[in-house]
Specification:
Length: about 280
């Protein structure tokens, strides 16, 4: 499937990391607040994917939302990124680990197919390895078997993406990266994505950029728009074509984060934020 065949993804993703036994409650609350995209991972160390499934089930039961109205995204995580609670046999080959992890995710999430399946991070920070190529091919087979609509990669550099492309494998539909303003908001990776119709998902937009959050220019923009600096950052992210993630645990911030979509910022203001720190 070409990268352009991206499913209709919502314009905001609710992230479920680090919520432990509040995961189900917060997932349901996010759906009630209006989020229609959920990001998780089969990595018990940072995510409680089964809790996400419990939250989804509660929302379905209460009539808040139906499965087909949701965009569900989860991830395959190498053993190096996991603790002892593995969703696969550590002695199995990587191809088998991908299919075991996917089967476990589908069970956790109570669905027969996710919308996006993401490689949580390549095996090496230096480049796209043979292990990555094996995992990526296994993920493509999961997609071909109908267990995910599209594929994505996370925590990648421009070099990873160029090597993935040169290897001739399918391009991802999504790239999910921590977005640092001091790197021009991940300018080079975003440009690679834009040229190939890959949707860039940005996380840690607030926490990776404390200098932006306290920048007087952002404060002035926020004051003029009767908004918060966090809302200005999310509005900026949307305006430059990102699909932002928020993992807020606050009901008020859930509402504010979604409301940032309606903030009026001019093209000049967006351009000024893009140049702010990088
Ligand atoms: N692919 C990866 O490797 C990876 C890595 C990290 C994260 N992620 C994904 O991205 C999601 C989001 O993670 P994140 O790193 O961006 O951090 P986050 O969990 O969204 O944390 C953001 C921080 O910003 C605060 N916040 C949110 N909305 C706010 C608002 N409107 N005003 C003021 N503060 C606000 C939150 O506090 P409150 O809770 O008090 O609102 C929280 O302290 C994760 O849940 C996960 O799904 C992926």
């Amino acid at each position: 499937m070409p990268a352009s065949a991206v499913p209709p993804a919502p314009d905001f993703l609710y992230g479920t990391a680090w919520k432990e036994d509040r995961t189900a409650m917060l997932t349901e609350q996010a759906l009630r607040a209006g989020f229609r995209g959920i990001d998780t991972a089969n990595q018990r160390r940072h995510y409680f994917e089964a809790g996400v499934g419990q939250g989804l089930a509660a929302a379905y039961r209460a009539g808040v939302v139906r499965r087909e109205e949701l965009f569900l995204q989860t991830k395959f995580t190498y053993q190096g990124g996991q603790d002892h609670r593995l969703p696969y046999d550590p002695d199995a080959d990587l191809t088998t680990q991908v299919s075991q992890s996917m089967a476990s995710s589908l069970e956790h999430l109570g669905t027969e197919r996710v919308d996006s399946y993401v490689l949580h991070g390549p095996a090496s920070g230096h480049g796209w390895t043979d292990d990555d190529a094996e995992v990526w091919a296994a993920m493509a087979r999961e997609r071909d078997a109908g267990r995910t609509r599209v594929l994505g990669v996370s925590n990648v550099s421009l070099r990873h993406l160029q090597q993935l492309e040169a290897g001739g494998g399918p391009l991802p539909a999504f790239v999910q990266n921590r977005c640092f303003a001091r790197l021009g908001w991940d300018r080079s990776v975003r440009a690679f994505c834009r040229e190939r119709d890959i949707v860039y998902q940005g996380f840690s937009l607030l926490t990776a950029n404390p200098e932006v959050m306290r920048h007087p220019g952002i404060g002035a923009l926020a004051a003029r728009a009767h908004a918060t600096p966090a809302q200005v950052v999310f509005r900026f992210a949307l305006a430059v074509g990102m699909l932002p993630l928020t993992g807020t645990t606050s009901a008020e911030h859930m509402t504010q984060d979604l409301a940032s979509r309606d903030l009026a910022l001019s093209a000049e203001e967006i351009a000024a934020i893009e140049r702010l720190a990088g």
